[in-house]
């Protein structure tokens, strides 16, 4: 118990420093990283006896040292002036503004919303038909359970054209949320909201059709962070009110998530045998216990300068990008199979409780580079996220003409991966990938379509 209290107190101190020294609130990368381990540690207090929780000194040390490294690095980057890059960014922003002026109104034509509704419905149909062709007919729960079991056992490669349609649909969900928060009160706003909500619901439904909840959780968390980010555009009391409302919404989302988490699992075909709280704890708190188990079982295999991994073919932190390189350039030795992953990160169980196979952000760092790996990977994560945050703060890009600011959406994605550091190495697994860069391309294409595509002399409405 004492070890968990130390982690919570240290995290609270770091967050307090961020709140007292800046107006960034919880939206800064450092505050998000510090927040990450508070809920998971607090919930783990309830499972000390059930899970035989007795964190070793090395577990407490790696969590606190990682938080310290991230905080110091992000604060240092915040103090650096990137004058040339800011000037370049300003030039790009001015160019984009001139394009917007030449393009006329930033209003999005109704037919474009309708086009995306049709596109996403088509995506839904072809994706569902493909899934049924793999697992067979049955109830929705049966189909979801069957495809989920198949994706857990092996990689399911969608046909490239279906994969692209699915990715575009999922990425568009962030665009619809962004636009929902930017609707001004005027004639026709209610109709636009309806179109946006329909598109958002379709995007969510497409995202969960392979039986996973990750995309749904990301849409919710990124949506909340987008709302919170717009509080920076407020002045004085308006800014404060928006932030308070943001915290209230966060509490509501958390309560709803706790209540509905197990039901959502059943809806997506999972066969659950645990209580709602036990099921939530597997995702929220078990990774810390699993990290402790990993460190205790590794013994002397992890040193200051070297982890268990002896090369890129077993590197876990960068496995996503290494798999892409392996397939693209036909380097078979770099490919990380499911069997390899389950060997290194087996499902943990204790006293009849299932604890999953997630080990927090630090296990892969230790596995790949020892304690030096924790320093290097945490430092790079902090530099990248803080640098992106400074760019969107410097230019206040989300204030410009209500237009879609892709850089803000991208930062909200990074914020989401950062605040989930208690769970797994989500930043490197999701950002340092070709898929992340493809999503940027898709967002740019969607924005171009919404604002620039015209027929004749004006948009069709």
Defining key terms:
2% strand; 461 residues; mainly alpha; two-stranded antiparallel sheet; 69% helix; 18 helices
Rg value: 23 Å
The oligomerization state is single chain
Helix and strand run: HHHHHHHHHHHHHHEEHHHH
Strand order within the widest beta sheet = 1-2
**What's the β-strand tally?**
2
Hey, roughly how much beta strand do the residues contain?
under 5%
Largest sheet: 2 strands, antiparallel
Shape: globular
What does this structure look like?
By secondary structure, the protein is mostly helical. The protein has one domain (2-452). The protein contains 18 helices and two strands. The chain has helices spanning 2-21, 29-44, 57-79, 83-103, 110-135, 140-153, 160-180, 189-207, 214-229, 237-267, 276-284, 286-298, 319-328, 338-344, 362-395, 406-419, 426-430, 434-452; strands at 348-350, 353-356. It has a two-stranded antiparallel ribbon. A hairpin with a 2-residue loop joins strand 1 (348-350) and strand 2 (353-356). Helix 7 (160-180) packs across helix 18 (434-452). The longest helix is centred in the C-terminal third of the chain and has 34 residues, at 362-395. The chain is globular. The model has no long low-confidence stretch (mean pLDDT 84).
Offer a concise description of the structure.
This protein is mainly alpha-helical and 461 residues long.
Give a topology summary.
Layout (H helix, E strand, L loop, with lengths): L1 H20 L7 H16 L12 H23 L3 H21 L6 H26 L4 H14 L6 H21 L8 H19 L6 H16 L7 H31 L8 H9 L1 H13 L20 H10 L9 H7 L3 E3 L2 E4 L5 H34 L10 H14 L6 H5 L3 H19 L9
Antiparallel strand pairs: 1-2
Helix pairs in contact: 1-2, 1-3, 2-3, 2-16, 3-15, 5-7, 5-8, 7-8, 7-9, 7-18, 9-10, 9-16, 10-11, 15-16
């Amino acid at each position: 118990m004492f070890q968990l209290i130390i982690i919570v107190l240290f995290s609270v101190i770091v967050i307090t420093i961020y709140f007292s020294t800046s107006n960034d609130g919880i939206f800064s990368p450092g505050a998000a990283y510090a927040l990450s381990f508070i809920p998971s540690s607090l919930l783990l207090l309830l499972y000390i006896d059930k899970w035989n929780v007795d964190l070793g000194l090395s577990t407490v040390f790696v969590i606190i040292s990682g938080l310290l490294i991230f905080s110091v690095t992000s604060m240092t980057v915040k103090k650096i002036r990137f004058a040339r890059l800011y000037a370049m960014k300003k030039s790009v922003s001015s160019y984009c503004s001139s394009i917007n002026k030449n393009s006329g109104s930033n209003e999005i034509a109704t037919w474009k919303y309708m086009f995306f509704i049709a596109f996403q419905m088509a995506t839904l149909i072809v994706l569902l038909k493909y899934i049924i062709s793999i697992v067979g007919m049955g109830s929705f729960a049966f189909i979801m359970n069957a495809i989920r079991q198949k994706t857990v056992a092996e990689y399911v490669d969608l046909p490239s054209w279906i994969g692209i349609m699915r990715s575009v649909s999922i990425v568009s969900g962030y665009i619809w949320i962004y636009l929902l928060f930017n609707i001004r009160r005027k004639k026709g706003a209610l109709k636009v909201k309806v179109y946006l909500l329909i598109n958002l619901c379709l995007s969510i439904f497409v995202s969960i059709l392979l039986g996973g909840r990750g995309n749904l959780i990301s849409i919710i968390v990124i949506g909340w962070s987008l709302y919170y980010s717009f509080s920076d555009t407020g002045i004085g009391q308006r800014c404060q009110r928006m932030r308070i409302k943001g915290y209230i919404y966060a509490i509501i989302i958390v309560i709803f998530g706790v209540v509905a988490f197990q039901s959502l699992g059943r809806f997506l075909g999972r066969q659950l045998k645990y209580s709602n709280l036990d099921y939530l704890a597997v995702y929220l708190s078990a990774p810390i216990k699993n990290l402790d188990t990993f460190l205790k079982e590794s013994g002397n295999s992890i040193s200051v300068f070297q982890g268990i991994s002896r090369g890129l073919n077993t590197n876990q932190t960068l496995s996503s990008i290494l798999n892409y390189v392996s397939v693209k350039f036909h380097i078979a030795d770099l490919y990380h199979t499911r069997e390899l992953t389950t060997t290194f990160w087996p499902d943990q169980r204790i006293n009849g409780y299932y604890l999953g196979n997630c080990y927090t952000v630090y296990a892969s760092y230790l596995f790949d580079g020892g304690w030096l790996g924790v320093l290097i990977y945490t430092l790079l994560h902090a530099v990248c996220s803080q640098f992106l945050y400074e760019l969107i703060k410097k230019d206040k890009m989300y204030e410009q003409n209500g237009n879609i600011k892709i850089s803000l959406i991208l930062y909200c994605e990074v914020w989401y991966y950062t605040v989930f550091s208690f769970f797994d190495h989500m930043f490197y697994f999701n950002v340092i990938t070709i898929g992340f860069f493809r999503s940027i391309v898709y967002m740019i294409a969607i924005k171009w379509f919404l604002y620039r595509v015209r027929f004749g002399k004006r948009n069709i409405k």
